[in-house]
Design a protein that fits this description.
The chain is of the alpha/beta class and 496 residues long. It contains 18 helices and 10 strands. It has a 10-stranded mixed β-sheet with strand order 3-2-1-4-5-7-6-8-10-9, sandwiched between helices. The chain is elongated.
């Protein structure tokens, strides 16, 4: 077990000597496909024993490419050096990328091909590659304790992503996903979705809470089939599939696809789910034609706004959602944001908005985020805002001092016994009627952080924030001008 705890460090140290690996993101991507094959191989052993006869289970992977036959060093001997590199680059990858998969292929088999579709082997030193493979092969997934510990180590690998440049966008701190899953209160038999699921944090937090309610084998089957995920980028998709297999979801309903490529008006009741838990990507860039998949008034250029529309179209009647959104969504009053918020508050019950401290996603982004909780039970009548302050003794969250689930304790306590709270003359928790929200033109930047020092944001985020503020200001000016001209009876479009 002690051997496992230094796994990430040992693997990273070996890779540092390989000329083909450049930085943390590539290092973790390299570990990802090897881990997937190792985990998948141990799962195949499990699936084999649950079949009626040994002949029944057929691997989709040709024998020579199964982990047990090329990576496992029998009697201390295994391919290494140039022989190993030659095999990985010219046999393993081409074979797995071209596995025969069609609509009838079971998900548990099809995931191998989708996992390798865009995967890469970056390593150029076959001897070092053999050392890494030996480290991974030493993990025993058939021993419950070791398998459980490794699932936790996998979390460490995902956390490492946060500081690996732009890869951090795939990781939502576990404290946040756990809090949201707890508050949403999963029930056996419900279907939950995350339409930009990254490495699968929301899916695992949902399963963790739901599994506490299992009483029968039927419950267990319902639980393991209760998730649905979509991830656009190949690398987090691999990590997510492996994450699901490690969490005993043998048929991961996680798809390598882009949710925004489908017309929202084409969704039917079959596409709707009971619960949505999400941290939609924001500040993302999509092709301009993506907007064509949305009604004109909802067609924003901000990815988080577009995902909000998808969520509204895909949440079942009486369904529940918890969604992380940046401050720009709350204060934004440009036309698309106002249209999205108008739809949200008039068709859904936005009952709670938790304002989170700025450094929750540190060091990846300093943009302040919020959690919106709403359900599809009818229009909003009133919305509670609650500001979660930094815990005692913390100035900022960081990689070494990340947010923990216990830091949500004040919000959990307040949740079940709601009261308005003022601190130093500023609102910390307050209830607003939907009319008050409409009167503000859906600028719902309420119960914010009063004493915050001016934060110096990285250039990209600063520009993004200015652009959002400018769009809101322009929209406000246009609206006020329209009201004034209407009162004065001036037709600005008329010719002089």
């Amino acid at each position: 077990m002690g051997n496992l705890s230094n796994f990430v460090k040992r693997v990273r140290d070996i890779m540092r000597n390989d000329a083909g690996i450049n930085g943390d993101a590539q290092r973790i991507e390299q570990i990802a496909w090897m881990l997937f094959l190792k985990v998948y191989d141990s799962k195949e052993d499990e699936w084999n024993t649950t079949f009626d006869s040994k002949e029944s289970y057929q691997s989709i992977i040709p024998e020579s490419c199964r982990w047990r036959n090329w990576a496992h060093a029998k009697n201390g001997k295994g391919m290494t050096g140039d022989t190993l590199l030659e095999f990985v680059n010219n046999t393993l990858f081409p074979t797995l990328k071209k596995l025969p998969v069609d609509a009838s292929t079971p998900i548990k088999k099809a995931i191998v091909q989708t996992t390798f579709a865009d995967a890469n082997n970056y390593m150029k030193d076959g001897v070092l590659l053999r050392q890494i493979i030996n480290e991974i092969d030493d993990i025993k997934f058939d021993e419950y304790e070791e398998s459980r510990v490794f699932a936790e180590i996998y979390e460490t690998i995902l956390r490492e992503l946060q500081s690996a440049g732009s890869a951090g966008e795939f990781y939502t701190p576990r404290a946040v996903t756990d809090f949201m899953a707890q508050m949403i209160d999963p029930q056996i038999g419900e279907k939950m979705a995350d339409f930009a699921c990254g490495t699968g944090g929301f899916l695992t937090s949902w399963l963790k809470v739901l599994r506490q309610k299992i009483q029968t084998t039927t419950d267990e089957n319902l639980c393991n089939n209760s998730i649905y995920g979509v991830e656009k980028k190949q690398f987090p998709y691999i990590l997510c599939i492996t994450n699901m297999l490690l969490h005993d979801v043998d048929v991961p309903q996680v798809f390598h696809d882009n949710t925004l490529l489908r017309d929202v008006l084409d969704y039917t009741e079959d596409d709707q789910v009971d619960v949505i838990l999400m941290n939609p990507p924001y500040g993302g860039s999509e092709k301009p034609e993506i907007k064509n998949h949305f009604p004109a008034d909802l067609a924003s250029s901000e990815t988080a706004d577009l995902f909000m529309s998808v969520i509204m179209y895909r949440l079942k009647e009486n369904g529940r959602a918890a969604v992380i959104l940046p401050d720009g969504f709350l204060f934004g009053t440009d036309n698309a944001k106002v249209a999205i918020k108008t739809k949200l508050f008039s068709e859904f019950n936005v009952h709670t908005i938790i304002r989170m401290p700025g450094s929750v996603f540190s060091p990846y982004t300093s943009i302040t985020t919020n959690i919106l909780f709403f359900d599809h039970t009818g229009p909003t009548e009133e919305t509670w805002f609650y500001r979660l302050d930094m815990p005692e003794g913390y100035k900022h969250f960081s990689k070494t001092k990340p947010m923990k689930l216990e830091h949500f304790a004040p919000a959990v306590e307040w949740w079940s016994d709601r009261k308005e709270i003022q601190l130093d003359g500023f609102d910390k928790a307050k209830k607003y009627t939907v009319q008050e929200i409409k009167d503000r033109n859906y600028n719902i930047d309420l119960c914010g952080y009063p004493h915050e020092e001016e934060e110096i944001l990285p250039p990209k985020e600063l520009i993004q924030q200015y652009q959002e503020k400018r769009a809101s200001l322009n929209a406000d000016i246009d609206r006020i001008l329209a009201q004034i001209t209407e009162i004065l009876g001036i037709d600005l479009d008329a010719q002089d």
